[in-house]
Amino acid sequence: MDRPAIIHKTAADLRLPPNLSDYAATCRDFSWAAQAKAIRDSQGLPNGGLNIAFEALDAHAGGPLRDKTALRFVSRNAAPQEFSYAELTRQSKRFANLLRELGVSKGAKVFVLAGRMPQLYIAVLGALRHGCVVTPLFSAFGPEPIITRINLGAADLLVSSEELYRRKLQGRREQMPTLRHVLLVAEEGSRSVCADPDTLDWATLMAAASDEESAAPDTRPEDPALLHFTSGTTGTPKGVVHVHAAVLAHHASGRYALDLRPEDRYWCTADPGWVTGMSYGIIAPLLQGVTSVVDMEEFDTDRWYGLLEQERISVWYTAPTAIRMLMKSGTEQTRRHDFSALRFIASVGEPLNPEAVWWGKEALGLPIHDNWWQTETGAIMIANTAAFDIKPGSMGRPLPGVEACIVEHLEAEGAAPQVRVIAAPDVEGELALRVGWPSMFRAYLNNEARYRKCFAGDWYLSGDLARRDADGYFWFVGRADDVIKSAGHLIGPFEVESSLMEHPAVAEAGVIGKPDAVLGEMVKAFVSLKPGFKADEALRRDLLAHGRKRLGAAIAPKEIDFLPKLPCTRSGKIMRRLLKARELGLPEGDTSTLEGGA
Ligand code: ATP
Ligand code: MG
């Protein structure tokens, strides 16, 4: 179906005037120094201190939001569990005091391995308050990826649910020599009975700890706060270090990119095991004083539509992979639900095909706002905000305080990259950000050389290719690693995938370059189908013809294979490098983050 190139915002789309009403003026007047001062002046720590947990909780705990629900945990079989801002503050102080009593000092590394349960949130916030560096581990990781990360990060303390610990780590303590303490959270209402010696019981220690502040947090803006591992889409996951100053960017982006405000009921579907679930599932919503709904269950189409309706979600932050799964099940189900509370939907993690933006409008009543960032950037950098029209397929425009551009690489002597900014619009090149935003990563764990290679002069180089149009919108082309060179053309897989997604049979598409004697590389697509479609020759021919018609012969896929499901990372990204390795019979490389893998 041919669609217009732009979705103009209507009053019905907006419901409320956006937080960011005059985009150009806000960008012009914005400064990170002013943001920092505003925080210091309102509820900052003395002597220029800054602490993520303090900003997220204490700022509200003494004010009008103190009794408001901060977190609401919902699950299939138990009653919802709610924590007010005041209660969450108390619990986080309790955990900080518990750490102190265990002799865990500032700067110690606290790893968390648990499902989306309240104790995980309390441990994260309490450890941040205490000045520890927090690393979440995704709960579906197998033993190897968990142990590798614990050792890479030299974890001092692990908080885990007893169930996950028993399944994955019991009896392997000697493989994690840096761990001084393991704290186990048992089933609700019971005590840990783990057979491993040297494990501690969360409930007992928490009950014994005080929930009074013994001393205000003493972290500085540049103290490390978070260590996140990347998704591992392009290779071995990297450890990415963030500092407490990142909270400034969490604050600004929660307001401007997600348009959050205290009256919202907000649902971020990302797991806190990944950076999105930490920055926007825990920190940013608390900073904005919203009520966050946390679903403790796994993805389920019916359940998700039901939650949006029954929980009266007003702002929803999700990912293309989830949207594709919802799209796959058709629009029939959506008609049975009332999504009238929804006023803003955003997506991150992968390119959002135009088809998905439109699906939002048709099935949920609102277009979906794509935004772009990375584990390294710590917070949303480029976004379709509530304040301007959407060009479906574009990632939007840089947020206030963010300067983005497209650069080309120059031949450089030595290791340091050199780049030139491409001022002209519509030219493809590497997406770069001007250094200086507060949530920029401060290191790759144990890899200073790799860190340095990410910078050229004042620019951070993202490793993603994009172009900027004359209106200042950025368009994702592909990861530098994934771009296909075919008969002299540079082809971004995203464009090809988006056009395949327009075909009614296609649920997911992943495109690679396959070595070809004539073309250099040939465009090859892998697709999975929606229910009711048969993977046969007729459909293959139809898809090939659809591609040629949409894209022209030079860019269209020359080969299409059907797969029941495309390989994805656990954070929901299509792993094109794996499609390619399998196609070429090459080693698969690091698959620790493969969905359904180890
Ligand atoms: P690794 O660095 O280990 O290969 P990763 O890059 O997938 O994994 P993340 O930091 O979780 O790890 O993901 C950031 C990347 O995700 C971006 O560099 C980009 O390639 C992709 N991405 C995120 N949001 C978008 C978006 N809105 N549009 C297109 N791509 C996106
Ligand atoms: Mg990356």
From TrEMBL:
Presence of keyword Nucleotide-binding: yes
An annotated Gene Ontology molecular function: acetate-CoA ligase activity
EC number: 6.2.1.1
Residues in AMP-binding enzyme C-terminal domain copies: 495-573
Keyword Ligase: yes
Pfam families reported in the protein's UniProt record: AMP-binding, AMP-binding_C
Keyword vocabulary terms for this entry: Acetylation, ATP-binding, Ligase, Nucleotide-binding
Residue ranges annotated for the AMP-dependent synthetase/ligase domain, each copy included: 66-445
UniProt cross-references to NCBIfam families, sorted A to Z: PRK04319.1
Protein name: acetate--CoA ligase
